[in-house]
Design a protein that fits this description.
Elements lengths: L2 E9 L3 H17 L3 E19 L2 E14 L5 H10 L3 E8 L10 H4 L7 H12 L19
Antiparallel strand pairs: 1-3, 1-4, 2-3
């Protein structure tokens, strides 16, 4: 199952109600066959602008990140379900990309340019694409043009 990250902005709520909203959200993910990997509370902050959601204007919100795994076919259902929840102001679901594995090339990069493999390839490519020079063996003893 692919990994997803859910960024939630919840309306300003007392702690017991906030816990019930997070519990509802987590149960919705688990009911769809998902696995919750991480739940992170980012705190209560002022929103960058007024947000109108479900007929109410919000100026502050509590931010949460939830990392979870689920089937791709269930993501749209989760978005719809979170959209109907009146306590959730904003919800964004992002697919988490696996980081690329990079091979360390520091030792090779510390070599002088003449010994680096990539520089040697560039020099070889330049040698292959050089223009042909004038052939001085044209049968004349001298160069007929001004030099």
């Amino acid at each position: 199952m692919p990994s997803y990250e859910l960024a939630l902005v919840l309306r300003q709520l007392p702690r017991p109600e906030l816990i019930s909203v997070i519990r509802r959200t987590a149960e919705a993910i688990l009911d769809k066959g998902g696995i919750i990997r991480k739940l992170e509370n980012l705190g209560t902050r002022a929103l960058p602008h007024k947000v109108s959601e479900h007929g109410v204007v919000h100026r502050e919100g509590t931010h949460f990140n939830i990392a979870f795994d689920t089937a791709p076919s269930h993501v749209a259902d989760l978005k719809e379900e979170f959209g109907r929840d009146i306590d959730i102001i904003r919800r964004y679901v992002f697919k988490v990309q696996e980081p690329e594995e990079h091979k360390c090339t520091l030792h090779e990069e510390m070599l002088p340019p003449a010994y680096r493999k990539d520089v040697q390839e560039i020099v070889e490519a330049a040698k292959r694409t050089q223009k042909k020079k004038y052939n001085y063996n044209s049968g004349l003893d001298y160069y007929p043009f001004q030099k």
